[in-house]
Specification:
Blueprint (H helix, E strand, L loop, with lengths): L25 E7 L9 E5 L2 E7 L5 E5 L13 E3 L2 E3 L6 E3 L4 E3 L14 E2 L1 E4 L2 E6 L27 E7 L4 H5 L5 H5 L4 E10 L2 E9 L15 E11 L3 E10 L2 E15 L2 E10 L9 H26 L15 H9 L10 H4 L2 E4 L3 H23 L24
Antiparallel strand pairs: 1-11, 2-3, 3-4, 4-9, 5-6, 6-7, 7-8, 10-11, 12-18, 13-14, 13-19, 14-15, 15-16, 16-17, 17-18
Length: 406
């Protein structure tokens, strides 16, 4: 179907195909594992279903369909009793493997007393669930890699944010190849941009400069921000690990940023972000924690900038691209592998593909815009007039936007 139809020759129509009716095959992160370890059941809306997450007495986190197969009671409103979740309706006890273990008032448990159970993984203080519409177990080659620093005293604990976005989750994945939006939406300044797709991974490599027109000057005695380097990789359809370094005068600040999501239904998803920061002598004993808190707030603002775009844009299956845009169509072919049966994954979806953008023209245009913005700021401060063509504002006071974010 199209959202714009016209009989006039030469006017391009926007094609908006239906969103997928199935949910992506792969590992999906539900957030920090610790929040599910309070002895209570937790409700999670994901994959078009209502799920219950609970911790059994052996410490394992379990994920089941939330509705009891007996009379439809909501297990997420029940009680954890030993290794089982007890339904609040009739006290049927369900184990983490999806089987009913006990019915206190019954002589025996029916043979078919089984509900949907989800394969889980707890790693680096995060909880993952495996989704596969075909019901196959996760193959070893798509395992989520360990995250440097997540379990090290030399790094901070996770700073984690969660929000719900009311659109299809393809929108967030498209940003892997969208260099220009970092300048216009997030007020960063990319100078190098490359993508690599191979197998179940999609990587964005970005280097950028600080934007003096988008942030206040450094305070006296504080090192100035120079720029950043980001290597951000999606491992499967929804979990991105970004090895991110901020470059300051006389110091580098190493971080790991997580950008991940899971679908709630076809038209909404839970968007999560997390960050850890490597401790640094230059930062002092509490400096890394303070920096992690600041960066976490900054990243959340970056997601809010994206959400404002997503709320008002239309889905577009035939984007009209210019030479300086990234490989949107190739990324979408890579992404398609998670929405078809394994037997239908074609070589064009998984073969290695590399693309480095020529940033000559963007950098030239963006330098000019930054200079005009600075001239306008100086003119406003002195009561003068800004030069013709200077941007009229909309510039964020934030720092350099991290690469790999939405």
């Amino acid at each position: 179907m199209t959202t714009i139809e016209t009989g006039q020759d030469g006017i391009r129509a926007i094609e908006t195909g239906a969103v997928p009716t199935r949910f992506a095959r792969g590992w999906h992160c539900l957030g920090l594992a610790g929040k599910f370890k309070d002895g209570r059941p937790h409700t999670v809306h994901a994959f078009g279903s209502k799920l219950v997450v609970f911790q059994s007495s052996d410490g394992r986190l379990n994920v089941l369909d939330a509705y009891c197969r007996h009379m439809g009671g909501d297990l997420s409103q029940g009680t954890v009793k030993g290794d089982e979740i007890a339904c609040p309706f009739h006290d049927w006890r369900w184990g983490g493997d999806g089987r009913c273990k006990k019915i206190p008032y019954a002589r025996r448990v029916p043979l078919r007393a089984r509900t949907a159970a989800w394969t889980t993984l707890e790693q680096d203080h995060l909880l993952f669930v495996w989704n596969d519409p075909e019901g196959n177990p996760p193959p070893a080659e798509v395992a989520i890699p360990r995250i440097e620093g997540a379990t090290s005293d030399g790094w901070t604990d996770w700073r984690w944010n969660e929000t719900v976005v009311h659109t299809n989750c393809r929108e967030v994945v498209d940003n892997v190849v969208d260099m220009a939006h970092f300048f216009y939406v997030h007020y960063s300044f990319p100078t190098y941009f490359k993508n690599i797709f191979e197998g179940h991974t999609a990587t964005q490599i970005m280097k950028g400069l600080s934007r003096p027109d988008a942030r206040p000057p450094s305070r006296k005695g504080q090192p100035g921000m120079l720029g950043n380097t980001s290597v951000a990789t999606y491992h499967g359809p929804s979990f991105m690990i970004d090895d991110l370094t901020y470059h300051y005068e006389g110091m580098d600040l190493n971080c790991v940023l997580i950008n991940c999501h899971y679908p709630i239904d076809a038209n909404s998803f839970a968007l999560h972000s997390g960050i850890i920061v490597e401790r640094n002598e230059r930062l002092g004993p509490d400096g890394a924690e303070e920096m992690a808190a600041r960066l976490s707030d900054f990243i959340l603002k970056g997601f809010e900038q994206d959400v404002r775009i997503w709320k008002n844009k239309t889905r577009i299956d035939n984007p009209l691209l210019c030479e300086e845009d990234g490989p949107v169509y190739q990324l979408r072919r890579w992404y398609e592998q998670f929405y078809v049966d394994v037997a239908d994954v074609g070589p064009e979806m998984v073969e290695r593909f590399e693309f480095e953008l020529d940033t000559t023209r963007p950098v030239e245009a963006w330098r000019k815009e930054v200079e005009e913005n600075l001239a306008r700021r100086a003119a406003a401060a002195s009561g003068g007039t800004a030069p013709d063509g200077a941007s009229t504002g909309g510039v964020s006071p934030g720092a350099v936007s991290p690469g790999g974010t939405a």
